[in-house]
């Protein structure tokens, strides 16, 4: 597991900062809607936690399959 973390450190750091941002925004929105601090904190932790895991695996899939080739069909120097 340590090797997995080491191999994916940039993605894990990005996921962590995204998580903190997401929790903060979700807490502010939930508080604005409910007016209840404890409820807003509870709601704001649930969804971003699930999203953080989804984001990490999305990032890994994007790194593997989302890249485009250097010479994509339909894109040439003439069309620039």
Structure description:
With 80 residues, the protein is mainly alpha-helical. The chain has one domain. Helices cover 76% and strands 0% of the residues. The protein contains three helices and no strands. Helix 2 (9-34) packs antiparallel against helix 3 (37-65). The protein is elongated, with a radius of gyration of 19 Å.
The low-pLDDT segments are 74-80
| Strands, total number | 0
The whole-number mean of residue pLDDT values reads: 81
The number of helical runs is 3
Structural domain tally = 1
Structural class: mainly alpha
How much of the sequence lies in strands comes to: under 5%
Radius of gyration: 19 Å
Helix content: over 70%
Topology order in helix (H) and strand (E) letters: HHH
**What's the main sheet like?**
none
Distance between the termini: 45 Å
Which overall shape is indicated by the principal axes computed on the Cα atoms?
A: elongated
List the helices and strands and how they pair.
Layout: H1 2-7, H2 9-34, H3 37-65
